[in-house]
Design brief:
five-stranded mixed sheet, three-stranded antiparallel sheet, alpha+beta
């Protein structure tokens, strides 16, 4: 930036350039409408005008189709056309307006559109535009869900597309569940909403697996080298792709829908972990009756709780009530992946410790206002 140029100067030139670009967009739309009528796409390697614009200008076919529709619509909408040419309205707002504006409504719509967001105009257009049943069927036929591993198997990517009605059901279920899950440390604010939705999606899937009548087919299989589980240094492999830390494997092995294939250094199986470590149904019922809720001080979570093995198997831990503790999914991660420790005395006292070994004593009690009682009158 030139040293003698003020902020006001910069904004002035930005506005002027935006008006110039908007005018150029209007000219471009005039040419797009003409090119569409002339079928300029023929013999160009494209299948239609939208494909032609997509190839030539590097935009999506969806956006190209919207531009073509807007280009033709603007020929009968002089006020919106002028608003674009002068820069009063940007191209995104104009493209949405042309979906439902008419010669009778465009004057009022220009004034309204200047004071609202593009998203607001798009929502109005989505409602106003008549939907063809063929579009509904296309959306249904185009639904998909796919996933993949990346970052050398350490991360899991997920992508989906659903018809709006089904998407609304999924979104509502995830949002409602996200409101009920415990919050991870440092993720209390609204900016972490996406992370909480991810936790909610996992919770939905975990609930489904837990109720599956076929435990073997519903189990997530972990190939765990024995040395990795003992040292905690090497990784473990998930059947179907993906790698996890040994501590994550230990946490998963506390659940009843994970099967561990314990292997030696040559990859030969030396044991199958899930059947030996899965608490029986009666034991889980008794554990939930005994502990009632997550045993982290003050948590109180009763949903999405799991049986945690306090002493793990390589240290002599057993799958019995004295070695089990009911914890929520969040505090389960706190123990395995975040370095916290927990112990339970025979009389039922549960002690939690920070990663540095200091004991966690729970939330401090609220301060009480002390008001001295008036002294009793002396008895004469």
């Amino acid at each position: 930036m030139e040293p003698d140029r003020t902020k006001d100067d910069v904004v002035h030139w930005m506005d002027a350039l935006h008006a110039h670009i908007s005018g150029a967009h209007r000219n471009l739309f005039e040419l797009i409408a003409e090119a569409d009528r002339l079928e300029a796409w023929r013999e160009s390697g494209a299948r239609d005008t939208a494909h032609f614009l997509s190839i030539r200008y590097g935009i999506s076919c969806w956006k190209a189709s919207r531009w073509i529709h807007a280009a033709h619509a603007l020929e009968g909408l002089p006020r919106i056309s002028e608003a674009l040419r002068s820069g009063q309205l940007g191209i995104d707002k104009v493209v949405e307006l042309t979906r439902f504006a008419t010669a009778e409504t465009e004057s009022n719509l220009v004034s309204w559109a200047r004071g609202v967001s593009v998203a607001c105009i798009r929502r109005k257009a989505d409602v106003a535009v008549r939907q063809a049943i063929e579009d509904v069927r296309d959306a249904q036929a185009s639904r998909f869900l796919s996933w993949w591993h990346f970052d050398d198997g350490r991360r899991f990517g997920l992508e989906a597309e659903l018809p709006a009605a089904e998407g609304a059901v999924l979104a509502r279920a995830i949002e409602r569940l996200a409101e009920q899950l415990p919050v991870m440390p440092g993720e209390e604010g609204a900016c972490h909403a996406d992370a909480r939705r991810a936790d909610a999606l996992v919770a939905l899937a975990s609930t489904s697996l837990a109720g599956d009548p076929d435990p073997d087919r519903a189990a997530v299989v972990v190939h765990a080298p024995l040395e990795a589980l003992i040292s905690g240094e090497a990784g473990c492999e998930l059947e179907g792709g993906g790698v996890i830390h040994a501590e994550t494997a230990k946490r998963l092995l506390c659940s009843s829908r994970v099967q561990a294939m314990i292997e030696d250094g040559m990859g030969q199986p030396v044991g199958v972990g899930r059947m030996a470590r899965e608490p029986s149904a009666w034991m889980l019922r008794q554990l939930r009756y005994r502990d009632s809720e997550c045993r982290f001080p003050g948590c109180g979570a009763r949903r999405f709780t799991q049986a945690h093995h306090i002493e793990w198997w390589e240290r002599g831990g057993r799958t019995d009530l004295d070695n089990l503790l009911l914890v929520c999914t969040f505090h389960h991660k706190l123990v395995h992946e975040f370095g916290w420790t927990v112990s339970r005395a025979r009389e039922g006292t549960v002690r939690w410790s920070h990663p540095d070994g200091t004991r966690y004593r729970g939330p401090a009690p609220p301060a009480e206002t002390f008001e001295p009682r008036p002294a009793l009158a002396a008895v004469g």
